[in-house]
Amino acid sequence: MAKKPTKSHIKKIKSALEQEKEKLFHQVEELKKDDPFSDPDHASDNAAIDTDVREQVGHETIVAQIKSLQRRLADIDTALEKISKGKYGLCEKCGMSIPQARLKLIPEARWCVSCYQSLYK
C-alpha cells in the first residue's frame, strides 16, 4: 500500500503546482498573442490563398496547444483543491493512496496507475 504524502511533501508539491500553474497561464497568454486570428486586421485583409491556409493551420495548432494547456491547468486546480481539502494523493476511482513516485512525476495525478490504465483502455 502506498504511503500518503507527508505535510512537508504536500507543501512542496503545492508550491510546485502553483509555480507550474503560473507558467502554464503565461504560455496560454503568449499563444493567444501568437494566434494569427488575434490580429484585428486578419478579417479584412485580402491575403493570398496560401497565406490564408498558413494562418488557418497556425490558428488550429495554437488552439490545440491552448486546449492541452487548459486541461493541464484544470488538473492542477483540482490538485490544489484536493490539497486544501486534505484529499490530495488519493485516487479518484478507488480511493487508495497514489504512490509517491507517481505524484513526484505527475503532481496533478488524479488516479493510481491501475485505475488510470482501466480508464484509458
From TrEMBL:
<keyword id="KW-0862">Zinc</keyword>
<keyword id="KW-0863">Zinc-finger</keyword>
<feature type="domain" description="Zinc finger DksA/TraR C4-type">
    <location>
        <begin position="86"/>
        <end position="120"/>
    </location>
</feature>
<keyword id="KW-0479">Metal-binding</keyword>
<dbReference type="InterPro" id="IPR000962">
    <property type="entry name" value="Znf_DskA_TraR"/>
</dbReference>
<dbReference type="Pfam" id="PF01258">
    <property type="entry name" value="zf-dskA_traR"/>
</dbReference>
<protein>
    <recommendedName>
        <fullName>Zinc finger DksA/TraR C4-type domain-containing protein</fullName>
    </recommendedName>
</protein>
<dbReference type="InterPro" id="IPR020458">
    <property type="entry name" value="Znf_DskA_TraR_CS"/>
</dbReference>
<feature type="zinc finger region" description="dksA C4-type">
    <location>
        <begin position="91"/>
        <end position="115"/>
    </location>
</feature>
<dbReference type="GO" id="GO:0008270">
    <property type="term" value="F:zinc ion binding"/>
</dbReference>
<dbReference type="InterPro" id="IPR037187">
    <property type="entry name" value="DnaK_N"/>
</dbReference>
